[in-house]
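Usage

Read records sequentially. Each one opens with the input sequence:
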Amino acid sequence: MEHINMKLILKYFPDLTEDQKYKFKMLKDIYEDWNTKINVISRKDIDQLYLKHILHSLSISKVISFINGTTILDVGTGGGFPGIPLAILFPRCNFVLLDSIAKKIKVVDAAVLSLKLNNVSTITDRVENTSIKYDFIVSRAVTKMKDFKRLIKGKVNNTSNNTLNNGILYLKGGDLKNELLGINHKKFNISDFFDEEFFNTKKIIYVNY
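and closes with the structure output:
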């Protein structure tokens, strides 16, 4: 099973270093072990960790390759997605993974320690209580975009150095037409990057904040 899981990642990311391959392989054991103690990933999804969580998280890298030194805040990270896979892929960027639920951050901290991810730190709090600014804010559909924009107001740096201007990169599925009315955004279909049926309705919403 592990071979099949890694085969899926290598299908789209063939140029990973040996260290990155090792860390992606480790994710399976880390999350299976922690999921027996703290249920951060649904029971039915843990068997599809690489498809529904790791590869889904990595889709963001298909619309932007963060330059070294970029700062990224993952809001409502849950068990560490999309932050941890992105931190493995971009080891010279700085990631902060935030969630208001302490037991979820406990799992993230354990994963970060096991993986020796020196580019990741965590915060147990609500995003509106933080005052630091970041280049990009990523998230997996914690709320409607209008509400999310309000929550992260004032938390995006003004100076942009990447191919996309600083802003929000939001993973979400389904029909978003009404939700995004009046919001200046770009929509990327993840099915343009990955073949698997799971991604047919999944999107990355970019908002230049």
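Summary fields computed downstream for this record:
- The helical segments are 2-12, 18-35, 43-46, 49-58, 83-89, 102-115, 145-151.
- The chain has a mean pLDDT of 93.
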